[in-house]
Write a structure and sequence with these properties.
The chain is an all-alpha fold. It has eight helices and two strands; from the N terminus they run αααββααααα. Strand 1 and strand 2 form a beta hairpin.
């Protein structure tokens, strides 16, 4: 009698292991993203799932999660840019992950956070980083690929002229004359 029960328990545990295998694999891939630990990855998989048929694009997922700004405009006046209400378990976890990613050294997410923090404030920058983390998670789960991070210098290389103009403007405000020439 006991042996039969032990065999049944072993069979059930084997079936559970085969059913949970895709979820464990997805959690393992999501933990490669800076700021996401095991528990956060499990929450992401639990909320989003491994089959994203209900979200045709990443924009649909961001909107459902509540990580896109509201467009509240009337008669040419912009009223509120507050973030929408979204998934009550997913959004707080992603924002916490964004704060952790913003504090990780030499990462794309830290560079994005610091770039946006000066213009929009720390909280809005954290929400933007959370949206970027969710975007990365969507494509990792959709394609079954590993996380490939952009380097922190991505923004500088992408907009060299903008960075040079901003730094020159800052020096002018400090009282220096600046002339910008491209190095040979």
């Amino acid at each position: 009698m006991v042996e039969a029960l032990e065999r049944t328990i072993g069979e059930i545990e084997g079936r559970i292991g085969t059913v949970l295998a895709p979820f464990r694999e997805a959690v393992g891939r999501l933990t490669q993203i800076p700021g996401i630990d095991q528990t956060s990855a499990q929450v992401l998989v639990a909320e989003i799932g491994v089959n994203r048929g209900q979200f045709p694009t990443v924009g649909h997922l961001r909107s459902w999660a509540g990580l896109c700004p509201r467009l509240d405009e009337s008669a040419g006046k912009q009223r509120s840019t507050r973030v929408r209400k979204g998934a009550p378990w997913l959004k707080p976890v992603l924002v916490q992950c964004a704060w952790a990613a913003a504090r990780s050294k030499n990462t794309y997410f830290q560079a994005q956070f610091l770039r946006l923090k000066g213009r929009r404030g720390a909280k809005k920058a954290a929400v933007a980083v959370a949206a970027s983390i969710l975007t990365a998670a969507y494509y990792i789960l959709r394609n079954g690929a590993s996380f490939r991070e952009l380097d922190p210098g991505h923004f500088v290389r992408h907009d060299k002229a903008k960075v040079a103009a901003r730094l020159a403007r800052r020096l002018r405000h400090l009282g220096y004359e600046v002339e910008i020439r491209v190095a040979a």
